[in-house]
Amino acid sequence: MTTVIAKYSQFVMPDHINVVGTLFGGQMIAWVDLAAAKASYRFLKGADIDGSVTRTIEQVEFKEPVYLGDWVNFTAKVVKAGTTSFKIEVKAYAEGRKTEPRLACVASVIMVSVKKSEDGTYKKIAHGKSL
Ligand SMILES: CC(C)(COP(=O)(O)OP(=O)(O)OC[C@H]1O[C@@H](n2cnc3c(N)ncnc32)[C@H](O)[C@@H]1OP(=O)(O)O)[C@@H](O)C(=O)NCCC(=O)NCCS
Questions:
Q1: Does residue 30 fall inside a structural domain?
Q2: 4 CA distance to ligand 1 centroid (A)?
Q3: What is the pLDDT of residue 1?
Q4: Which of 124, 129, 131 should be mutated for ligand 1, with most atoms under 8 A from CB?
Q5: The CATH number of the domain where 32 resides is what?
Q6: Overall domain count for the chain
């Protein structure tokens, strides 16, 4: 069985903060998508495809607030492989200067492998990968 895990980190800067002084949820989701994209990149290595796109981001849960100056450390794991799609579970752990790492956000991302067609658009294509 192949295990594909990617790690990805971001530092929370002033531009990422919402009006109540914590990390903006939309920013977190963008980072979740990037963490999933890194796992996707690894999962699809060697496949005859041109890339992958996000089809759904589901079951997003913001479990703990994240603060200015925290690091956010993501793990993204491919947990299911379909024909053109695959599912990635993403966990985001916030790390403060004075706090223990805490699970701040979880989400499931479905990505679909694509290939450029003759008309220039990207169409789904079987990735041929399994877990
Ligand atoms: C992703 C895309 C290429 C899929 O093409 P499509 O012809 O609509 O494909 P389908 O509806 O048949 O779905 C493709 C796969 O996704 C799965 N899928 C679709 N919707 C799903 C959902 N809500 N939940 C889980 N899986 C889903 C299908 O089961 C299928 O998986 P399989 O081939 O492994 O069995 C197309 O929908 C697209 O381009 N969407 C926009 C993507 C985008 O812009 N993303 C943001 C930027 S990255």
A1: yes
A2: 21
A3: 66
A4: 124
A5: 3.10.129.10
A6: 1
Decide if 65 contacts 22 (C-beta within 8 A).
yes
Domain assignment present for residue 71? The answer is: yes
Question: Per-residue pLDDT averaged across 97-102, rounded?
Answer: 91
Domain that holds residue 21: 5-124
Give tens-digit pLDDT for 31-40. Answer: 999 999 999 9
Task: Provide the phi-psi class of 36: left if phi over 0, else alpha when psi is between -120 and 50, else beta.
Answer: alpha
Q: Ligand 1 in contact with 54 (CB < 6 A)?
A: yes
In whole angstroms, what is the distance from residue 36 CA to residue 118 CA? 28
What is the spatial distance between Cα 63 and Cα 40, in angstroms, rounded to a whole number? 25
68 inside domain: yes
Question: Is residue 103 predicted with pLDDT exceeding 90?
Answer: yes
Predicted structure pTM score: 0.96
Q: Is residue 129 part of a domain?
A: no
